[in-house]
Amino acid sequence: MRKIESAEDKKAGSITYELDDGRRVRILAQAVEELGVIECLSRMGFASQMPEAPIPVFQNGKRIGTMPADYNPLRSARRAALYDPRPDDFRLENGIWIVNPMLEARDIDAIPGFVRE
């Protein structure tokens, strides 16, 4: 699954995802923020398209760990008082999480469910 960026989606307040089988699904950005993309897809009947195993996490081209399959970067509870997640900290691309290179290790480690390798 990968997120497809478009001006049309930004204007409409939606996000389009291309599923592994090539189908595209448009979801309201507010729903993704509140529920997470995995929960949205589940409610839409796309349970077979959702990952079940932990999702690899990469930063600067190197694998640094894994996140649970249902991780939602904007909704995740935080253990670090000084870390406030931003929309560009994590992006889901081709079934892996890509971490913004500017995000520090202590911030990533503070995210519940993250397992460093």
Describe the structure.
The chain has 117 residues and is an alpha+beta fold. It folds into two domains: 48 residues, no CATH class; 62 residues, no CATH class. It contains four helices and eight strands. It has a five-stranded mixed β-sheet, with no helix packed on it. Strands 1-2-3 form a three-stranded antiparallel β-sheet. A hairpin with a 2-residue loop joins β4 and β5. The mean pLDDT is 83.
Give the helices and strands, then pairings.
Elements: E1 2-4, H1 7-12, E2 14-18, E3 24-28, H2 29-35, H3 37-43, E4 55-59, E5 62-67, E6 90-93, E7 96-99, H4 105-109, E8 115-116
Features:
five-stranded mixed β-sheet; three-stranded antiparallel β-sheet; alpha+beta; 2 domains; 117 residues; 8 strands
